[in-house]
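[audit] Reproducing an earlier prediction to check determinism. Same input, same settings, fresh worker. If the tokens differ from the archived copy the diff job will pick it up downstream; this log only records the rerun itself.
[audit] input (119 residues):
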Amino acid sequence: MWDPWLAWLGKTYGVAFHTTHGVMPIRQSGQDLQALGAVMQGMTDAQLAVLGVAVPALGSLVLGLALMGGAAVEELVASATVDERHQMAVWGQDTEVTDRIASMQMELETAARFNALTR
């Protein structure tokens, strides 16, 4: 599910994040991090406000930037919650998790609406 987002990041910002299959973090290139820093430095206060909601909600700068670029909220939520949804498919529905996902969806819809209105 993440490959399209990483491809989008590369196409849109020229950034190629390295990935892993483990749980340990890996270093990204300084050049890529500087490129993303420059992107954020060029954002308006309104854009940074949207990113400030999207990144913590989604747990991902890549997905937050995709929201800023007009990606569908449903697709972003699906990508951000792939592990939770897999666990529920294996172990059964968890209302605490489904409530959190629904809350995330609403937060992001509001952020996306704000982003559209401030363009």
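[audit] rerun output stored. Observation attached for the diff report: The mean pLDDT is 95.
[audit] end
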